[in-house]
Amino acid sequence: MTRAASPLDHRAVEVLKGLILDTVHRARSGHPGGALSSADFAYVLFHRYLNFDPDDPAWWNRDRFVLSAGHESALLYSLLVFCGFLHPNDLEQFRQWGSRTPGHPERGLTPGVECTTGPLGQGVAMATGMAIAEAFVRHTTHLEFTNHFTYCLASDGDLQEPVALGAAAIAGRLGLGRLIVYYDSNAVQLAGPTHLADATDYAGVFRAMGWQVQEIDGHDHKAIAAAIEAAQAETTRPSLIIGHTVMAKGCATMEGNFETHGAPLPEAELFRTKACLQLPQEASFVLPEEVITHFRRRFPELRARRVAWNAQVAALQTDPAMAARLAEVQQPTWERRFTWPRFAPDKVMATRTAFGACLMALAQQLPHLIGGSADLDPSNQTAKFRDTFGIFHAQTNPTGRNICFGVREFPMGAIVNGLALHGGIVPFGATFLVFSDYERNAIRMSALQELPVLHIFTHDSFYVGEDGPTHQPVEHLWSLRLIPNLLVFRPADARETAACLSLALRQPSRPSVFAFTRQNLPVLDLVPEEEMEERVARGGYILLEPTHRPVEVIVLATGSEVHLALAAARLLPEEGIRVVSIPCLELFAEQPEDYRRLVLPKSVTRRVAVEAGVTAPWYQYVGPCGQVLGIDHFGASAPAHVLQERYGFTPDNLARIIAQTR
Description:
Layout: H1 7-27, H2 32-49, E1 64-67, H3 73-83, H4 88-92, H5 122-140, E2 150-154, H6 156-160, H7 162-174, E3 179-185, E4 188-189, E5 192-193, H8 202-208, E6 212-217, H9 221-233, E7 239-244, H10 267-276, H11 289-295, H12 299-316, H13 320-330, E8 348-349, H14 351-365, E9 369-373, H15 377-380, H16 383-389, H17 409-422, E10 426-432, H18 436-448, E11 454-458, H19 476-481, E12 487-489, H20 494-504, E13 512-515, E14 521-522, H21 532-536, E15 541-544, E16 553-557, H22 561-570, E17 577-581, H23 585-589, H24 593-599, E18 607-610, H25 619-622, E19 627-629, H26 640-646, H27 651-660
Parallel strand pairs: 1-2, 2-3, 3-7, 6-7, 9-10, 10-11, 11-13, 12-13, 16-17, 16-18, 18-19
Antiparallel strand pairs: 4-5, 8-14, 15-17
């Protein structure tokens, strides 16, 4: 039977709130109000239900806790002090240079933080990805190896971001019974009461999306515990617990005040609140021993669970087949090498088609490769993967490897981040390049969290044709290249496509974006197939050299425009033209200076770049006297060959531009 809170529980929450207030006050910035309103639920969860190893915050089978309301970081950091993963001194360094307690939680920086949150809504989506990963790994390995819950704490702002509702729709459709989201409904957001901006019936919305929904008093510990237990018992649907709370609960005079959302309490209010919480007004970061002892009374049980798990896994590994499955999900992909399809030089195929062939070959070798398309399966060449390996559903097909994301690019991007964060999964998501705008912040979060996710984009240029300017990317390649710690691959043919995928899988700490063509391209035969990956690993390489003349002009190209550059060079036999293929500018920029100067010697000032996108960034490579053939305008609806002529992407026009560099 669920028990009510004890006096020591109430005292622990008062101390927890004191740490939150002191943390924000010392930094002179932060968000105390929501942290105070969520404190009761978070305390009950961590104190009584969260399964973790007090000595190892990275234990594989721990419950995952995602603070989607990342602005409530002072709450999480204070709880991590209770857990022993942080020291009170860390709270004193909140939001300061070099601290383990940044303004919003950051993966890899703070022990006990599962993912980087702050951009609202994405935590709900990443938690969805973690829950998918848990179900898949549990059913493809063994129940004793992976068997945990994924908890998420969300705010009003999280659910107002469409990315959260998109992910919730997917979670409901997939029957993620081990996903439990707590919605701290305190009726206040940063700019004022929520009713000014939102009148959504979230209980009705989530029920309609297939969730179990409970509504409780979010300050009643007995109700919180009962709701968590009911959510744990519901195995076929994700659960939403709506906790009706008071913003800044416990403050002396500012309970319910929206001004507590994004700023420290005024000093007088802080002192009065501490008095209400029975804390010394002048002392800071008070942490009584009896509170810590009470909070950690479950630690012996938690440690025993870890010991039992270790023994269970050791027993499983006595079975060679099971040992191999467990090793498979734990072996880093970057330590492996894969076999790719061989593409004959007489073939003509779009790089998206080459990707589809590579995807199928990779899937056979990498059984924990999981992903899908944003309702563009045939266009993205993922339909065969879907039909071969099945559609994932936590209840009916938990070993399925294709996720039907629907027309939800942003939730897709954040969910694949969650898959990667959980571990044991190599995730990918696919859509058109022009829709990377929808997904962009999730891609940025992939890079910020150093997640080796594969972001697949097809239909990479105006060659999309008749669909018109809404579907023809112009600025997108360079927009993505501006994101730090992200590799952007635009291969020129099928062989470069395989090499780019191989290189992406060798990245331990950065994601990759791929831009594939819709239109067919010849398979290049200028580089031996066995040398292609080594060349592409340089980011840019010499594809064609003049045979009877010194190098007089350099033409740089990516993707489909590499073939255009080769065709133009053939029209100018009197010129000493070097054609450089640059499938990945980021990798090229990382090469030693002597290699980059070998490819682009300073002595050769006649340079031309060609890419079906914006031109300005290319001048860093061609110099002020160079020429760039690109597009600095939106496209049009017409057949691709008509646009090619209209926009000057013809061998004759490029040859004319090259000649003009004399």
